[in-house]
Design goal:
Helix content is 72%, strand content 1%. With 774 residues, the chain is mostly helical.
Length: 774
């Protein structure tokens, strides 16, 4: 190509020179339009097209991006193992359509991370942190499927890498002022670390001193307005001014002075956390503050809030509790500051996963606030919503639902139907209704959200968190109703927006990814669901180790592994998750019991019957500690338990469990296919004992009941209907053999024909895809 009027050679696709316009010699090799040359793992999407006439140097940029990805992670963007197993057309599709995970995500989820990190002279966690962010952006810009969004030249690509190494803003980064300021601060870390801390604390100090000054001014105004009590009010104003002076003195002498290099053994590298910790020590030692308890409480409240904002909940709790003690003594139980700190403490305890304490603190605050400000005060309604969320977390679904309904009615009456707070109350109620698992309440949740989605979009904006949360919950209600195709579409729409707005590792993005995985699992797309759950686990195992959140993801991953025939790995994940669930929720909470059902079922399917029985017996004892809500899925518990006894040929024990499941459904008026399934299982116990007359009515009622409710049976339980038919065929075959009655032989043939028809229909259905849906 001409460059400054001189011909300059260009090499296209590493190791493969290609004439793209005209012959260079009579022996020049032209790439045919229906022929692709090159190494697939390093090949650009446009190069993988059959009619790739329009190839330019941006194809090189893609290949360079693959090399950088491999240098950083030890793996190519598209995994070599999958490439080796794929046909050529599938390779081309993967190159053109599949987006690789971010390098940092690939690293964090790779089993080879320790060896990769060792080869780069780094710790695994540190290597992942180094790659996350700018290097992710650089690599993914080079690997864009749309070549117009890649770097224009290799020089531009190289220059961006050099910018990263020099601590300069990279071109691949989103063009935000916040990012560029952060980069500047990183290059001048030593000079700016103290400044940032001081600015933060000055803001805190200004807020505190302004608050004190405002109180002083109000006291002075009260003194002027009420001349009869002028002397008293003036003394109050003087006291408030003195408190403001103490606050300012504390901030300047006891706190900000700690940033002075003379007081800082680490020179100018003091961090905000260090300043906060030193401030905490100074509060304990400062005698003037102890003589002014209200000032001390105010400072502790601000320090607690700052720790809380940084996610440092333990020191935040300490300051909040000491401030609460002081405000209780000064203002009493109904004081505004007292009630505000109680409400905040409830949220801090919830964040620390100390749910019983959080519930008690929030409940006490709500009772006091109702007494002080009334039922319809906005702060009362907000606190009521917090308590309802905690009750839902703890599995107290009946009380939580009542409180959410009352809260929505009051909010709409006071603020109007289309107010932001009213919409949030609708979202909370729908979330609550989903937790019940009851069909009519799931329909109510879906209807509520469908009717108000447009209002969420108009009030909050379609790319804002509240609208995405509403879309997320709407998709979840559809999934729980079994409307999986529409639920998948909504989840994919929500996931695309969440990744764009929040980024790939944000809580909202991960939550939607989790729900999409469950949706895919319900449709039998096990492999694709497993990929999503592994992505979530790779992020949460770093960000939320030992948390119930990570345990929930591992439960879902184990579910996908179990259904994919990987029961050994699934059992280990269930075993890891159980302590976190029991520690946070307790043994009888529905969350724990769901995990229990999955874990014991995996043990049963793996042939570990005795351990499955131990798990059932231990946790059923725990379940009596808390009332279990009416929920169709709990009928699974005695059914699964009974199946274990049946496999062990303990027929009396098995029959007792199946009867327990039937009674549970009858007692709670549950119209569910599980009752009919329990009847077939009970009939099977009699069939094993060759009690044909007792087995027949149960097996017939069970099959007919499931057939009538066939639409309720989830995809993973579709074989239950053919299972019931097999038992009827077996019943009449064995009965005929025992009684030599042609009637039974004819009945066996009749049911066999129905079984053959069902099996033929099942075999004719296409297998569910496990690829990336578009």
């Amino acid at each position: 190509a001409p460059y400054d009027d001189k011909p300059v050679p260009k090499v296209i696709d590493f190791g493969l020179a290609k004439a793209i316009h005209q012959s260079l010699t009579e022996n020049t090799l032209h790439t045919a339009h229906d022929m692709v040359l090159g190494t697939p793992l390093y090949m650009s999407p446009e190069h993988a097209q059959l009619n790739n006439i329009d190839i330019d140097t941006r194809s090189d940029i893609y290949s360079l991006g693959v090399l950088l990805y491999e240098l950083l992670t030890g793996s190519t963007p598209l995994e070599k193992k999958r490439f080796k197993q794929a046909a050529w057309e599938e390779m081309r599709r993967m190159i053109r359509e599949e987006d690789p995970p971010l390098p940092s995500l690939r690293l964090s989820s790779a089993e080879t991370l320790p060896s990769v990190a060792a080869g780069r002279h780094s710790e695994p966690a540190r290597l992942t942190r180094l790659v996350r962010g700018e290097l992710d952006w650089i690599v993914m810009k080079a690997l864009e499927k749309d070549r117009t969004r890649r770097y224009e030249t290799a020089n531009g690509f190289a220059a961006d890498v050099l910018r990263y190494l020099d601590g300069q803003p990279v071109q691949a980064a989103p063009p935000s002022r916040r990012y560029r300021i952060r980069k500047y601060a990183r290059r001048h870390r030593a000079a700016l670390a103290t400044s940032v801390a001081i600015v933060l604390l000055l803001i805190i100090g200004t807020a505190v001193s302004s608050w004190q000054a405002l109180r002083a001014v109000k006291a002075e105004q009260a003194a002027i307005a009420d001349r009869d009590s002028a002397k008293t009010s003036a003394s109050v104003a003087i006291a408030a001014s003195r408190r403001a002076e103490i606050v300012i003195k504390f901030l300047t002498q006891d706190l900000l002075a700690q940033a002075d290099p003379e007081n800082n053994p680490d020179g100018d590298k003091v961090t905000v956390r260090e300043l906060l910790d030193r401030a905490s020590d100074r509060v304990n030692e400062n005698m003037p503050l102890q003589r002014e308890p209200e000032v001390e409480a105010t400072i502790r409240r601000v320090l607690g809030s700052t720790y809380d904002t940084l996610g440092l909940y333990q020191p935040a709790e300490i300051h909040y509790r000491r401030a609460l003690d002081v405000f209780r003594k000064i203002q009493g139980e109904n004081g505004n500051d007292t009630l505000e700190i109680m409400a905040i403490l409830g949220q801090v305890l919830r964040n620390m996963e100390r749910l019983p304490e959080a519930e008690q603190m929030t409940r006490d605050a709500l009772i006091l606030r109702r007494d002080a400000f009334g039922r319809d005060h906005l702060e009362t309604l907000a606190l009521e919503s917090n308590l309802a969320i905690l009750l839902k977390d703890r599995g107290k679904l009946i009380e939580a639902e009542r409180m959410f309904r009352d809260n929505l009615a009051a909010t709409q009456r006071i603020l109007g139907i289309k107010h932001e707070e009213s919409l949030i109350s609708i979202l909370n109620l729908a979330w609550m209704l989903e937790a019940t698992g009851q069909t009519e309440k799931l329909r109510e949740a879906a209807s509520l959200l469908r009717d108000h989605l447009e209002e969420f979009k108009n009030v909050f904006g379609e790319d804002k968190p509240k609208f995405l949360m509403a879309l997320h919950e709407f998709a979840e209600s559809l999934r729980l109703l079994g409307e999986l195709v529409e639920a998948e579409q909504c989840n994919r729409q929500c996931l695309e927006r969440s990744e764009r707005v929040f980024g790939p590792t944000h809580d909202e993005t991960l939550g939607t990814m989790n729900n999409l995985g469950l949706c895919l699992l319900g449709q039998g797309k096990v492999a694709e669901a497993e990929v999503l759950f592994r992505k979530i686990e790779s992020v949460e195992s770093i960000s939320f180790p030992e948390s119930v959140r990570l345990a929930t993801t591992r439960n879902n991953l184990a579910l996908s592994l179990d259904r994919g025939g990987k029961s050994t790995e699934a059992i280990e994940l269930y075993r890891k998750s159980l302590p976190a669930f029991k520690g946070v929720y307790g043994g009888g909470n529905p969350q724990t019991l769901r995990l229990l059902l999955n874990f014991a079922r995996a043990l049963r399917d793996d042939g570990q019957f005795h351990e499955a029985l131990v798990i059932y017996e231990t946790f059923i004892a725990d379940s009596r500690l808390e009332p279990i809500p009416t929920y169709p899925d709990w009928a699974r518990l005695p059914i699964d338990w009974g199946i274990v006894h049946l496999r062990l040929q303990e027929f009396d024990l098995a029959g007792a469990k199946f009867r327990e499941a039937i009674a549970y459904c009858d007692r709670n008026s549950l119209d569910t296919w599980l009752r009919a399934y329990a009847q077939t299982c009970l009939g099977d116990t009699f069939l094993h004992e060759q009690k044909f007359a007792e087995a027949e009515p149960l097996l017939l009622a069970g099959y007919n009941g499931m057939k009538l409710r066939e639409s309720m049976i989830p995809k993973q339980g579709a074989s239950r209907l053919s299972e019931a038919l097999e038992r009827l065929v077996q019943l009449y075959t064995e009965w005929h053999a025992a009684a030599t009655d042609k009637v039974y032989d004819a009945k066996a043939a009749e049911w066999q024909q129905k079984l053959d028809e069902i099996n033929a229909a099942a075999n004719a259905e296409p297998l569910p895809t496990t690829g990336n849906a578009k």
